[in-house]
Design a protein that fits this description.
Blueprint lengths: L1 E3 L3 H11 L5 E3 L4 H5 L3 E3 L2 H9 L4 H5 L5 E3 L2 E5 L5 E6 L9 H14 L1
Parallel strand pairs: 1-2
Antiparallel strand pairs: 3-4, 5-6
């Protein structure tokens, strides 16, 4: 599953357009991102730059908080305990699939 700061209507459009095979949940109020400690607020200058690139955060989220989550991966065990986390403020840097799969297998074996 994935959690996005976009409002449900935008997520439904994305799911249809991209034929996604996983669940998308909306965190447009950024409560989950705040709870996990990965929320950050864009400066007015950065928000204006985003709009210049065609990214309207207020339209996407339906909110005016100017917040985004740091791109992150959380692996949670069957008991609901977060067992592995990857976060990077550089949205272009993501964990490789092999590392995530290895961590998931280890968590499954330990459970």
């Amino acid at each position: 599953m994935a959690i996005s700061p976009d409002r449900p209507e935008k997520l439904a459009q994305s799911k249809r357009k991209n034929e996604l095979g996983y669940t998308l949940l909306s965190d447009s109020l950024m409560r989950a991102a705040q709870a996990y400690g990965i929320a950050f607020r864009l400066s007015d200058e950065d928000e204006k730059a985003y709009r210049g690139y065609g990214v309207d955060l207020a339209d996407a989220s339906g909110e005016t908080h100017q917040q985004l989550p740091v791109p992150s991966v959380f692996l949670v065990d069957g008991g609901g305990v977060v067992r592995w986390v990857y976060s990077n403020t550089d949205y272009e840097v993501r964990p490789d699939n092999a590392s995530v799969l290895e961590a998931a297998r280890k968590i499954a074996a330990d459970s």
